[in-house]
Amino acid sequence: MFTLLNKKGLLSEAYFKTSRSSGPGGQNVNKVNTKVELRFNIKNSQYLTDQQKEVLLQKLKHRINSEGELIITSEATRSQFRNKKHSISGFFDLLNNAFATRKKRIATKPTKKSNKKRLELKRKHSKKKQLRKKPGI
Asked: Using the 8-state DSSP alphabet, how is residue 3 labeled?
């Protein structure tokens, strides 16, 4: 969806913040800033059109903070570089999914064969239940 030029432009508007990761990891977690946070201000972007901004603000409203920033974090690996790459790819995946148009669902009816099969299974199930009853009831 995005060209290489657009990607570089959007990344130039984003800024990265690093911090210490949480969770297990021993001494490495306590001394190395491997967690990467990508912040992108949608409202101030010069590479997105007004219509694209509206779509993003609407579709990603649960991922945007009060300042209008889209925040993506990554602390999957012990490497800051790999976490940065992971957050960048997550950022573009999120944008591509937000701009993707959904195909309209076409309602379909069950086929005659599937209806017949369903009714036959219901009859078998009913018969099985009837056979479990005590005689004379």
From this structure: -
Specify if 46 maps to a domain: yes
Handedness of CA 2, 5, 8, 11 (dihedral sign): negative
CA separation for the pair 116, 2 (Å, rounded): 49
Classify residue 117: in a domain, yes or no: no
Whole-model pTM over 0.85 = no
Domain that residue 87 falls in? 4-99
Quick: pLDDT tens for 80-137. 899 999 999 999 999 989 988 889 999 999 999 999 999 999 999 999 999 998 887 6
Name the strands in the sheet holding 69-74, side by side, starting at the edge strand that comes first in the sequence.
Answer: 15-19, 35-41, 69-74
**Cα-only R_g, the chain:** 27
Token pair, residue 31, equals: 């001394």
